[in-house]
Write a structure and sequence with these properties.
Blueprint lengths: L12 E3 L4 E3 L1 H18 L8 E5 L4 H12 L3 E8 L3 H18 L3 E5 H4 L3 H7 L4 H19 L4 E3 L4 H13 L3 H4 L5 E2 L7 E3 L7 H10 L16 H15 L3 H19 L7 E2 L6 E2 L5 H15 L1
Parallel strand pairs: 3-4, 3-6, 4-5, 6-8
Antiparallel strand pairs: 1-2, 7-8, 9-10
Bound molecules: zinc ion (2 copies).
One zinc ion (ZN) binds next to α1.
Length: 303
Amino acid sequence: MRKCFKCSQKAQVYLPQHRLSLCKDHYLEWFDNRVEKTIKEFKMFKKEDKILVAVSGGKDSLSLWKALTNLGYQADGFYINLGIGEYSETSEKLTTKFSEKIGRPLYKISLKQEIMPIPEIKKHDSRPACSVCGMVKRYYMNKFAKDNGYKIIATGHNLDDEAAVLFSNTLNWSIKYLKRQYPVLPEEDGFIRKVKPLCKISEKESAMYAVLSGIEYIEEECPFSEGATSIDYKVFLSQLEEKSPGTKLRFYSEFLRKMYPILQKSEEKPVLKPCKICGEPSINEICSVCNLKLKLKKQEERV
Ligand SMILES: [Zn+2]
Ligand SMILES: [Zn+2]
């Protein structure tokens, strides 16, 4: 029997990459501390900042919201109902229930009201659903935060997410994206500061946190994410991780430590200007969401 490193009770959790055995209470404490350390390491925000957490009903965003609340931050939730059938219904229900449980406000918007549900958009747009979805989420999140006086947007991206994106960007040598791959994106040109406090926490670790703290979360993945290449990269990286624990964390944190600073030296930044229609920042005259709306409107008129 493994014993907890802290209190010598029976351990419930073993973290191979940290060679650490912990009981339930000490695991929950470890997790909160690790989130706090990451916030400090990357100077993400301070105790007095108003934070908006992007919640989806999944383990990562709800665990993040819980940890921030435990740590004494003023974190409120923001949920976008994407209109993806039962998946969206269940995730909205669980998110709402969770917000009541921790006693923090949850703001909700519905894509059906703003544009149209993702499955409908998908019929009119040839891009993969995940990229349209990501674009729409980023847009409404930023707009809502600005309109309501939030200075920080926190998302539940975990180490597995970040390592998979890093791997993909490295395979393609997408310098443009590698240059922006940092757990803090500063506020600039109409964008609110965005942070990823779970960037050093693995998917398994956040799932264990959710389970051990009794969070009810939606377990199924979004039906549209099936077949995404990022899933293949995650599987591959997890195989490496199993053979040598710590690989993912090393891959990601050494990138941040050694490569990221070098990339910042090369100057060349896209110029952003306010979108002619809605005023949100954009590379083009009209931002991608307004562009999507125009396209959908044109197609509707044709029908
Ligand atoms: Zn213990
Ligand atoms: Zn616009």
